[in-house]
Structures are given as C-alpha cells and as structure tokens.
Amino acid sequence: MAKSARRIVTPHRKIPLTVPEGMTPVEFFNSVANLKNLAEENGLLRSPEDFLLYRKAIGHSVEFDTSIILDTSKKVMDPLGRPVRRDQLDNQQKNVWSRMSEIIFSYMVEKYPDPEKHVILCGEASLDPTWPLSKPGVPSIRMIHNHFITFNMDDLRNAELADPNDPNLTDSGHNGLFSDQLSPVYQKFMEVLDLKILRPIPTDKAQLGLTGYPEGLPSWEVVGGADMLKNPRFWHEYDLVLEGFLDFYRTFFTQVSTRGAPVPENAYYPDQVENVLLFSNHFHRAAKLIRQEILQDPQFANKIRWRPAYKQLMFRDENGRLIVTISQNSVGNAITELLGIVVKRVTDEEAYGKAEPALLKKLLEVRDRLVDADLGDPVSTPCWPKGQFLAEKCTRMKKG
Q: Which long-range contacts (CB under 8 A, 24 or more apart) does 222-227 make?
C-alpha cells in the first residue's frame, strides 16, 4: 500500500449553543462565556491548578479523544495574558501536567496494546497568543492544551486519500520553512540537546508507514517505550526539545524581522544559536527569502507567526515505537495532520450516538485513574438527548 495522507470522517452531535447576535462563531468560541460552557457541558475533571480534562464535543475520533486545558479564563480576563506554552508554567503546574499526561497515555497503551490495530498520540498545540481573535481557531486557542487521541488503523487504511495540497497538511503553506528550506540546519541545531531517553532518528525512519508523515522534522525515539513516561527524566527531555524549538523559531523570525539581529534575549542555547544558526548561510538565505516575500505580498505577511507557535507530538507507530517530534504551527491545521491524518468532522446524531457509550466509558475510566492519583476532582459528565444538553441527565462518577 502506497504511503499517503488519509482523510477520515468523524461524526459529532449538533452542539446546542447559541452564538450571540453580532458575534462571529470564532469570536464567541474564544470568549470566557464559551470556556465556561465548555467546562459545564463537557468537563470531566478539574485539578486545584485549574487543569480541566474535558470531552471533545467536536472531536477528531470517536474511538478515544480527550484534552487537558489550563483553564485560567476566570482568573485572567485578557486572553493574550494566558499561558499558551509549557515554558510558561510554574514547576507545580509542570509536574501536574506531566503526571496527567503519563496516566492518560499509559491508559491508551493498555487499552490499545496492538500498534498494528491502533495509532495513539499525545500532542500539545500552542498557537501564537497575538494571533487575531477573529481568525479561525478552536475554543482553547488562548490557553495551553494537550490532546489524547486514538485512531483505528483499519479506518485509516480504508479511508480515502487526502489531497496532498490540502492547506491543513501543508501548514497553510508554511511547512516549507522547516521541512524543506531549513531542515538540515534545524537538525544540526537540535543536536545540542542533552538527551538520554530520547534517541535521534532519521526523519524518513520516524514516520507512520501508512501515511509517510511527519515530513522533514527532527524526531526522537523513546528508548524503553511507554514505561519511560513514568521517569521524570523523560518529561525533562520533552521540555528540552521544546526549548530547542523555541530558540530556533525565535532566532529565525527575529532574523526575518530584522536583518543582522543578534542572539535573542533569554535564549536557552545562546552558543548554539550563534555558532550554528547565525553562522549558517543557508539559515540567512531562508530568512532573506521570507523577508522579501513579506515586503511583496500583504496576504503572506498577514499570516506570519512572529511568536513561537508549535505542535509537539508523541505517537506510537505501527512497529510499536514511541516517537517524539515538533513542528511549527498555524491556524487551521490540527495536531492529527502532523501525522497525515485529515479529519472531516460532520454532524451525524445517529452515528455519534452509537459510538458515544463506549467513548464515555473510557473517558470515565481514565478520569477515575486521575482522581485516584489525587490529580483533581470529577465534574459532571454531559448527555445530549436529541441534541439538547440536560443538566439533570449528567452523571457523576462513583467510586468502586
């Protein structure tokens, strides 16, 4: 079977939500009111640190699909002032974030032990906090959030092939910056990382065999597999990958903005920035090309993400390897598209209703494990009979 991105269809219920007159849906989805609605109608668990585990009302998969968001909407009214990246979390928040992620991913490995039958992934998506509120995005666009998703491999094998020029697959046209123009210098720069659990592997060896994605990105195999997620060292190295990416991103777009700019302030690896990036003719050539296009094309200029926006992903491939990768991000594309999985979400009450009981059962099971680990308290789980949310129908998890 030839490698190719796949396009699958995922059903969801019609959301009983009214957007106030005079507001666009995206504007409302980024509002505090909608985040309150998200928690009350989809919330599963909330930690004292305000991490919210919630059910995806419009999800990527009906097999298993949930997210954690740091819901600071009641404490920080300014949506541009909320944490959108792990490096903006304090130590306690990072600890809770890592423990929750380990428990959920380990649950997925336990529930879906055969890598030839299921793809499992954990992915953090950060969007530029200065991106206009009116641009397309998701309700959690303004706060750090992590996705946990399972896809049935047979569904992917039988899915139609995706258009390779789909703007979501091509990162809205910006994928060439890292995967094509900058891949060699990007790979060399990331060699500075002090890694013991994450082992660098060639990009063409770090792909889903079915789709051939990710493309051209630095990748690392988790030596020791899923058991290493219980080791704090793994999460430290996961942070090192992010730090390296942030240095690279900031250096590149600082150079795009200002020719001859020095090493960015607060760089994690200033020597590597100076000696690898700023001494690379290839790096400066790419910055020059982007700068020239910005001057000539106002539409292109309007799409530039000046501050770090990324997707950091851990997934299990068909051979059972856990692989970590990281990419730049743009509005519109989803975490799954980094793996070449394009999801078309459609309203289909009947299809979703058939999948809902099994999905909710798994979400409640994983919530039970988080409660047992003292990582939060349960909140009501929603039901949508006939597409309408009825609070009295919600169930509260019972122990035992």
A: 222/197, 222/198, 222/314, 222/321, 222/322, 222/323, 222/324, 223/197, 223/198, 223/199, 224/197, 225/320, 225/321, 225/322, 226/105, 226/106, 226/109, 226/316, 226/322
Tell me whether strands 43-46 and 51-55 are parallel, antiparallel or unpaired: antiparallel
> pTM, whole model, 2 decimals?
0.90
Kindly report the backbone phi and psi dihedral angles of residue 221, in degrees, each rounded to the nearest multiple of 5, phi listed first.
Answer: -90, 140
Tokens of 24: 């666009």
What's the CA gap between 364 and 367, in Å, rounded? 5
- Distance between CA atoms of residues 370 and 257, nearest Å: 44
Q: Are 152 and 41 in contact (CB under 8 A)?
A: no
Contact 318, 153 (CB under 8 A): yes
Strand, helix or coil for residue 24: coil
The ranges assigned to domains in the chain are 6-393
Contact 312, 183 (CB under 8 A): no
DSSP for 302-350, please give it: HH---S--EEEEEEE-TTS-EEEEEEE--TT--GGGGGTEEEEEEE-HH
Only one residue has tokens 């009825």, namely 390
Cα–Cα dist 51/347, whole Å: 28
Q: Which of 17-26, 86-95, 350-359 has the lowest mean pLDDT?
A: 17-26
Tokens 């000046």 label which residue?
306
Token pair belonging to 71: 């819901």
* 244-278 pLDDT tens trace: 999 999 999 999 999 999 999 999 999 999 999 99
Q: How many CB atoms neighbour CB 58 within 10 A?
A: 17
Distance CA 372, CA 246 (A): 35
Residues 6 or more apart whose Cβ sits within 8 Å of residue 165: none
Q: How far apart are the two ends of the chain, measured CA to CA in Å?
A: 46
Residue with tokens 């499992």, as numbered in its chain: 120
CA distance 310 to 239: 13
- Which has the minimum average pLDDT: 47-61, 190-204, 238-252, 322-336? 322-336
